[in-house]
Amino acid sequence: MFTKGKKASSSLYIKLGVFLLIATFFTVSTVYAADDLKTVYHVYIDGEHIGKVDNEQAIQQMIDKKIAIVEHNDDNLTLRPKQDISLISEKVFNPTFDNEKVLAAVQENITIEAEAIELKIGDKSVGFFKDYETAEQVIASYKAEYVEKQEWQALEEKMAVNPDNQRPTKITADDLEVGDRIVTSIELSNRVTYTDGVIDPEKLLTVEQGLTMMKKGTLEEQVHKVDEGEVLGEIASKYNLSMEELLELNKSLAEDSVLHVNQAIHVTAYRPFAEVVVKEAHVAEENVKHETKVIKSDELYKGEEKVKQQGKHGKKEVLYAMEKRNGEEINQTVIDEKIIKKPQKEIIIKGTKVIPSRGTGKLTWPAVGGHISSPMGKRWGSVHKGIDIAGPSSRTIKAADNGTIVSAGYDNGGYGNKIVINHNNGMKTIYAHLASMDVEAGETVEKGSKIGVMGTTGRSTGIHLHFELYKDGVRKDPTDYLK
Questions:
Q1: What are the pLDDT digits (tens) for 35-73?
Q2: What is the Cα–Cα distance from 261 to 224, expressed in whole angstroms?
Q3: How does pLDDT run across 436-458, given as a tens digit for each residue?
Q4: Alpha carbon distance 51, 49 (integer Å)
Q5: For the chain, which domains are there?
Q6: For 226-275, where are the E strands, in sequence order?
Q7: Cα separation, 58 vs 41, whole angstroms
Q8: How open is the CA angle 474-480-483, to the nearest 5 degrees?
Q9: Under DSSP, is residue 149 helix (H, G, I), strand (E, B) or coil?
Q10: Is the pTM of this model over 0.85?
């Protein structure tokens, strides 16, 4: 076999064999001298005898000529004949030669191949490249599609500091500032191998072609699940298949077959040789939620609460490890955190005191100060059913005793805004002419609690409270029960 390349000598390496012949032949009358013997070279291509030549250099020159045609594109290629070429010398009398025939056969039958590096991802071949550096650059370029240049440089600097581990040392939250983000590793999801090989020089890939192949991936059979309304032509187009190709993959289907939702259709689609797996770490500042402590107190009514101490969130720095595949975030986990501000607990006092719905039987004055401007009894030719209270220091109206609000609304009979309280002990009180009401039917109110504001709604001659009392259904004079 002949070789030629950037490191190989241009001289011919040739498999030579020699027929050992008796140099002197004896006949009855003649003795031939050794000087009369001539050398011929038998030429074999892959073990097949092609012919004889008188000069082995002619074979070398023909091969060099074929190599030169290829080599002009890249002087760094290591080229050689693909076929095994052997020359066997023989000493003969009266030699004959087939120089032109043999050279023509060499020119026609010898092909030139290049020593190359095959790049494989998993068990899939990406292609052949002129050397290891070129193949490695393809991988680096593919990774660079998903990693910023400065991030890669930072990782390489960290790797240089720790070459034995080939990984950055362990990172904690103290190593980074809030907002910092560093790449900790850049790998492919499948194993990368580089293997020596040979190939037609025209099939060697450049870095750019190799990168295109990496992005495109390799064809693999997949299963497509039919969506509602999909037809075969639409599915074929989605995967860049002709109808004939799609039917070839699905023997049981015809072009007019009716498809069903979730039906499995076999297709072929390009799948990446590998994904770029980028692992990175970053620090974020986050709130630490405060705790809440509840203290029960019978000083407040049930349903009431008071904040004794306002809660405040704390702050922490959290170190996250994130994994991305081809630029998409797959997962994120917390690997370290540091509290920088402790939270302040919130303290809430919740009331437990229950308002009794049963009255005491002793009424409290339902206004803030004031006087009785009109007592119960005959007035203006009719009966005044209650007492009127006017001139208060505050217009607040209070429940005269514990009880349940029976009604709170506008009364068309002349009372205006009116509240009725059932004290659940046989007593009932009425509050009329209110400007506004602070309670609703069904509520339980405590003796002395605010239920509304004094006013002059309904038939009224001025701002006052009309107050009535009933005991066991019989109207009573409130002043007999007020303390």
A1: 678 999 999 999 999 999 999 899 999 988 888 887 556
A2: 11
A3: 999 999 999 999 999 999 999 99
A4: 6
A5: 15-110 (no CATH), 218-271 (3.10.350.10), 367-480 (2.70.70.10)
A6: 264-271
A7: 11
A8: 130
A9: helix
A10: no
